[in-house]
Automatic annotation (TrEMBL):
SMART domains: CA
Residue spans crossing the bilayer: 677-699, 827-845
Name under which the protein is recorded: Cadherin domain-containing protein
GO cellular component: plasma membrane
Keyword Phosphoprotein annotated: no
GO biological process assignments: anatomical structure morphogenesis; homophilic cell adhesion via plasma membrane adhesion molecules
Main localization of the protein described in the UniProt heading: membrane
Organism annotation: Labrus bergylta
Job description of the protein: Potential calcium-dependent cell-adhesion protein. May be involved in the establishment and maintenance of specific neuronal connections in the brain.
Subcellular location: Cell membrane
Amino acid sequence: ISVLRYGLAVILFVLHPVYGDVNMSYSFPEEMKRGSVIGNIAKDLGLQTGALSNRRARIDTDGTDKRYCDINLNNGELVVADRIDREGLCGEKASCILKQELVLENPLELHRITLHIQDINDNSPQFKEELIKIEIQESAVRGARFVMDDAHDADVGQNSVQQYSLKKNDNFILAANGNTIELVLDKELDREKQKEINLLLTALDGGSPQRSGTVVIHVTVLDANDNAPVFSQAVYKASLPENSPLDTVVVTVSATDADEGVNGDVTYEFGHVTDEMKKVFSIDRKVGEIKVIGAVDYETTSSFEIRVKAKDGLGLSSYAKVIISITDVNDNAPVVSLKSLMNPIPEDTPPGTEVGIINVQDRDSETNRQVRCSIQQNVPFKLVPSIKNYYSVVSTGQLDRELVSDYNITITATDEGSPPLSSSKTVQLSVADINDNPPVFEEQSYSAYVSENNKPGSTLCSVSARDPDWRQNGTVVYSLLSGEVNGAPVSSYVSVNGDTGVIHAVRSFDYEQFRNFKVHVMARDNGSPPLSSNVTVSVFISDVNDNSPQILYPAPEGNSFMTELVPKAAHGGSLVSKVIAVDADSGQNAWLSYHIVKSTDPGLFTIGVHSGEIRTQRDISESDSMKQNLIVSVKDNGQPSLSATCSMYLLISDNLAEVPELKDISYDEKNSKLTSYLIIALVCVSTFFLTFIIIIMGVRFCRRRKPRLLFDGAVAIPSAYLPPNYADVDGTGTLRSAYNYDAYLTTGSRTSDFKFVSSYNDNTLPADQTLRKSPTDFADVFGDCDDSPEVGTFAKYPQALLNRNLPALNHSFVCFVLQRIPITRSVLYLFYLLHQVFCIHFLIWKMAVLYTDIFHFNVVTE
């Protein structure tokens, strides 16, 4: 490694497995600049450069809060992070070692880094005082030695003080033996010649470049003889427990002087000591007791070496060494440090996963630093010892964030001291959520009830699903699953709010179209991958009374002319006709009731409230009007009630000859083309009749045939004259039984006799049942309707009857045209008078009677 200031640094790299870990050792000089490269961690571990970043590599400290090196994750280099002063870190220790830890995650690994700090010559030798004063008797003999205070150099090894030199003079030379410096008298002194002598002492270290320090020695020559103090021991040793109280006497030094009087008084003082020692110990100048004046901490300094100086009244002095050993006591509790933690930990982490690394340190020594670690109970984690003072936190069970989202793990460390000391550390571990729970609906199924004719956008119901997962994994979004309702997409009927789950109607519902339908709602979370669940929502549409009753028979007024023929011999209670109506609603909204709101003779006819059957209340008398008009109202049972009305025309007569022309019944012209066609048809028929009049007269006298006409009690007559064809009317669901009557027509030229025979079909349903028929069922019975807007008129008749009864139809057709087309009535009437003049009308009628076949008309009502 290239170091700009200090040259090449020696790097020692040692690989040796310790429980599968690597111990890396680097040696480099102190005072390297910040950012200087110490080594390359990635290369030494055999890792790719990107692996350090992916595994969150970092440097952790060992027993200190200061980090002196760091890792460059881009290239894997170990660099200086802070100023490293060997003298400040290690003092006078020959070896200065810093221990750091390299932590790697995914998987968790711990590697010890040992940093050997090399000393550089950055300190000069220094003497305790700038001026040293000594007094020497002129009677001192040649070779006398006088001990001097040595110089101190904070550096160690070769960079410390290596030699001393004394500036050349006439009287003294220098004798140095290790840390002992002595001034040797080389020539006897003569006070009369020179009372004071100044010497220059220089201390030199062995560094490069070499550094030095100097001090001036001032020698005073005395004229009286004196003796220097003498210590009782050259070296004093003492043992002191750490944390000793203040004023504790550590050791007492003693020196004696052979002189008497003032010259024999000895005083004591420390030689060259550091500022740290001055804060811990003091010496009594008179007695020589060394006492404790500051905190004594074994973990800070385990021993002290002090030079003590004894000086008499004449200035003569001598030195002794005091070595104080500090004994350890169990005064430090273990310290639990969290070195690495996988936080948060995914809840799907399998058991046995290493989630953290802790380190336990006790600054005490020997037995006092032996530590036991334990973890609290009832947590799915345990401690597994790793390398020295390191433990792994390992999961032991399956985690579930929805049950426990956070763990407060308490780790307790206890030492083996007496008494034992312990400490605890709480590690907060969060469990990270994964998307392992699908949304769950609060109900297994939902039902919504809505009345028909609802407003689009109205609220039907609300669905709700809960997802116990966290944040986006627990955020629920609602949507409709694709499907169809009556062949249309379900989205055209309802919509769901994706955030709230509220279901709205998109359109207005009609109970008569469909009464219920089902939709499927999906609740999906925002996890990756997303999870979902479905629920069925049944929508029930309730009926409202929005449909009026529809009268099927008789046809509503204005569409066709419906007439019933009632014999004069009808007794009270006889069935005359029946009103048939249906209601598209259901339930009580479709319960129909029938009422006669107006009639020509109020006491003659009555109607069944629930059946719609029109019956005579009494026997018909001669005084009763031949034409009876009933207005019938049909009401449903809804709230509010809706109704419809129809007119029923009744003719009281025993034969057709008595039936007058109903001139008060008129119809509107709807189709001009139909009028033209009818006129042309009438002219053609008349021409045909005039051409074959002679043949008809001959047939009339040769053959006469008595016709028979069958009538039901409910006959639909489109004009004042009965048509020769009839239709079957099936039940529509509101009648309770079927009625069939036979009507017979005599063969008289203008006499028509009718006979009503009792019903031959008794189909009675229970009162609580209803037969329903669609309007198309009636089309099969009454025949196809005209294409004109007059819905309900019978414009076409069964083809079979037309083919069999064409002569009778011709006459009926003429009568029908007279009643049907008012705008041609005058022309047709003129034509009719012309027929009367030539007796054509008489011959045509007789021909119709001759060729009229038996017609059977059944009206099946239920």
